[in-house]
Amino acid sequence: MKIDWAALGTVFGVSLSATVALVTLFVLGIVGLSKHEAATSRGGTATLARSGAYACFAVCAAAVAYGIYLIVA
Questions:
Q1: Domain boundaries in the chain?
Q2: How far is it, in rounded angstroms, from Cα 28 to Cα 56?
Q3: Out of the domains of life, which is the source (predicted)?
Q4: How far apart are the first and last CA of the chain?
Q5: pLDDT digits over 12-65, tens only?
Q6: Helix 5-41 and helix 47-72, axial crossing angle in degrees, nearest 10
Q7: Around Cβ 16, how many Cβ atoms within 10 Å?
Q8: Which of 19, 49, 22 shows the shortest CA–CA distance to 34?
Q9: Which of 14, 27, 59, 68 is the most interior residue, by most CB within 10 Å?
Q10: Residue 33 CB partners (closer than 8 Å, separation 6+)
Q11: Cα torsion angle, 20, 59, 57, 28, sign
Q12: What pLDDT score was predicted for residue 47?
């Protein structure tokens, strides 16, 4: 049995990068909703923060759906 270490390293690197990117996007979405809540409680509006948060969550959902598609197909 021969292990292709270069391919294994590539898979590890891509997996790590994708994980960090998705977690970062999700955290940015949570921060955006938090900013919206803080602005709303002070009587202001932060529709840009809410829209950005929803966009981050949409990208996360699309990435997860694509991953599931790759596994199932």
A1: 26-73
A2: 7
A3: Bacteria
A4: 28
A5: 999 999 999 999 999 999 999 999 888 888 877 778 889 999 999 999 999 999
A6: 150
A7: 10
A8: 49
A9: 59
A10: 49, 50, 53
A11: positive
A12: 84
pLDDT at 65: 96
CB 32 within 8 A of CB 56: yes
Q: Can you tell me the distance from the alpha carbon of 56 to that of 32, in angstroms, rounded to the nearest whole number?
A: 9
Model pTM score: 0.81
Show the 3-state SS of the chain. CCCCHHHHHHHHHHHHHHHHHHHHHHHHHHHHHHHHHHHHHCCCCCHHHHHHHHHHHHHHHHHHHHHHHHHHC
Q: How far apart are CA 32 and CA 38, in angstroms?
A: 10
Amino acid at 10: T
User: Which amino acid belongs to residue 63?
Assistant: A
